Amino acid sequence: MARSRTVFSTSLVAAIALVALVAGVVGGRATTSGKATSSGGGGGGGGAAFGQKVDVIIRATDSAYWQTLLAGADAAAKDFGITVGKFGPTSETDIAGQVQLVENAVSRGVNAIVIAPSSSDALNASIDAARKAGIKVITTDTRVTATIEGHIGTNNKLAGSQGGIRMCELLTAAAKTTGKVLVEAPIAGIEANQDRDAGFRAGLAEKCPKIDSHLQNYNNNDIGTAASQVNDAIAANSDLVGVFADNNSSGVGAATAIKDNNAADKIPVVAFDSDPAENAALAAGTIDALVVQNPYFLGYQGVVEAAMATQGRIPPATLDPGVAIADRDNMIKPEIKSLLEPPKAKAGG
């Protein structure tokens, strides 16, 4: 088993400093009895941004990943006295639903929006309209091509390269220097996933140049479809030596197919993100490594930066919290377990 690593971007240091700075902007932790009015609001005031209204719009309400982002947003609301509304469509493919939620936020007159976009460009018009109305916009996870106040998200090319390096280590340990690796992805055209795939291929090619990673599937973010596609790839490619799944649904689907084919000892799986099903697959050996992000930080920092922006402060254009590589050897360590089993919150006003 290759030695596990934790990879964090140096910008995380800047993030910590930023939180300290914003404490001065929004009044620090609450010490008085005032309470924000929304389900995501918290107690205490005194700072300039106390009571500012921030809508947090996630990509899908039924995903553990996005529920963790909402939990981070809730924590920031409570720490800094900000009124947070939590919203999202039920499916990551419902771009129109996200557009409607942005429009709803404008109608309610919020001060800022934190959004994890389902598309890099399909929300541009609604984001432009929000900013024209004086609403500050912070994006998380996926970038948009519209003008915004700031972005918080993983450098997906760098994170994907860590997945490629780990796959190469797994294949090298199994004395496999040729063959095919399938890249299983949710939806075509999502910048974050495209970057992960490109980064993975670059990381894999660095020391495993003879491994072919051109096989690519899109599963519409459906676990059953992902499982079927990986099953088909195993049947059609006798030289399939690995699977890279670039989000949690793809990872669970890949793990299901590996289990169904009794292929855990033959075909390693490196997947992105973490949820209970992926964690179980990691423990069982049908996933060999997880590239784990920190959605809790994305939600927390998103609200913090939104508060900064409402007070005329300028958040960083880009902030990358980095990733960790989880495997069966380190998944019980506190620093990894906290990423694999983070708190969650539900959407709902």
Describe the structure.
By secondary structure, the protein is α/β, with parallel strands linked by helices. It folds into two domains: 174 residues, Response regulator (Rossmann fold); 137 residues, Response regulator (Rossmann fold). 43% of the residues lie in helices and 16% in strands. It has eleven helices and 14 strands. The strands form two sheets. Strands 1, 7, 8, 9, 10, 11, 12 and 14 form an eight-stranded mixed β-sheet that branches. A six-stranded parallel β-sheet has the order 3-2-4-5-6-13, sandwiched between helices. Strand 11, helix 9 and strand 12 form a beta-alpha-beta unit. The protein starts with 5 loop residues before the first strand and ends in a 9-residue tail after the last helix.
Rg for CA atoms? 20 Å
Name of the CATH homologous superfamily of the largest domain? Response regulator
Number of helices: 11
CATH class of the largest domain: Alpha Beta
H/E element order: EHEHEHEHEEHEHEEHEHEHEHEEH
What is the annotated CATH architecture of the largest domain?
A: 3-Layer(aba) Sandwich
Q: Main β-sheet, in a few words?
A: 8 strands, mixed
